[in-house]
Amino acid sequence: MKSLVNVSGSNADYLSKVEIDKVGGGYFSSYEVSDDFIVKSLRGILGCMPKNINFYDLGGGDGFLGERIREFFEENGFNITTTIVDDNVDYLKKAKERGLNVIKSDISDCQEINRPDLVVMRSVNHYNQFHTQRKVLHNCFRSMADNGFLVSQFISGSRSECIAMNKLMNHPLLGRAGNGHSYYVTTEEEYIELLLDSGFSNIEHLGYAKTTYWGNEMLWQRFNKARTEEFLEKNNLLEKRSIEERHRKYIQLSNEIIENTLSHSNNFRFKKNLGGYEIELKFPIIRCKKNK
């Protein structure tokens, strides 16, 4: 049986042919969503930014948000250099077409961040294990200019919700994690502790970004739809039946994970949807600073 087991992080997106602009019903290509994020996270620091801004979007994908942020600062009289850091070559090609600088690198290994005044990370933290998230933030703090700002929007939830989401993303039948790599959704408290541990201060919780829905069936389709369609095009019925059976088992077992957690927790927002479960995501926005 062919699968994506042992493929992880941004490589899982790349090999699964994930189109980031279509994920979450177009969440990451929505002007309304991106502009809401910009207003909540960046408008309040306009008076603190240098005239010439060095800006990095870590895990910035195809550059949609990076371009919107560039336009926001230019409209407010700033000069801005925008760099997208991502490990997906298809996404970076689109970012270059937008006229943005690009660096092909996993954000946990990037050594080319050069004293940014602003770093943004939107919905990328959970691609990394907990200790790797610490490494990313430590590197970010070390590389930033004095008085630089870091803005993070990340997936979160109650402790029980985070545990369930981690189990669903790291389940071997999904084929998203492996080879020593796993995903980790943090609680808000955990993420703030990571920021403090990395040296950041002036930590502000700015509320929540606009939301979207997330669930086990969505996860399956994101990472296995292209492979299933490939088998259909090749009329490979044996592989098609194999992946359909893996799909059935994944939904069954992930439903059991959710239902078991639901029976032991009062703060758990997963709801039944068709054959699986889904949750309305919480996207906290946290802004912090590297003080001189």
Tell me about this structure.
The protein has 292 residues and is α/β, with parallel strands linked by helices. It is 41% helix and 18% strand. It has nine helices and ten strands. A seven-stranded mixed beta sheet has the order 3-2-1-4-5-10-6, sandwiched between helices. Strand 2 (79-86), helix 4 and strand 3 form a beta-alpha-beta unit. The chain is globular and about 60 Å long. The chain starts with 8 loop residues before the first helix and ends with a strand. Residues 1-8 have low confidence and may be disordered.
- For the record, give the distance between the C-alpha atoms at the N and C termini, rounded to a whole number: 55 Å
Major pleated sheet: 7 strands, mixed
How many H/I helical runs? Answer: 9
Percent in strands: 15-25%
Helix content: 40-55%
Quaternary organisation of the protein chains: single chain
Number of strands: 10
Radius of gyration of CA atoms, rounded to a whole number: 19 Å
Average pLDDT level: 90
3D shape: globular
Q: List the strand order in the largest sheet.
A: 3-2-1-4-5-10-6
Overall SS class = alpha/beta
Q: How are helices and strands ordered from N to C? A: HHEHEHEEHEHHEEHHEEE
Low-confidence stretches: 1-8
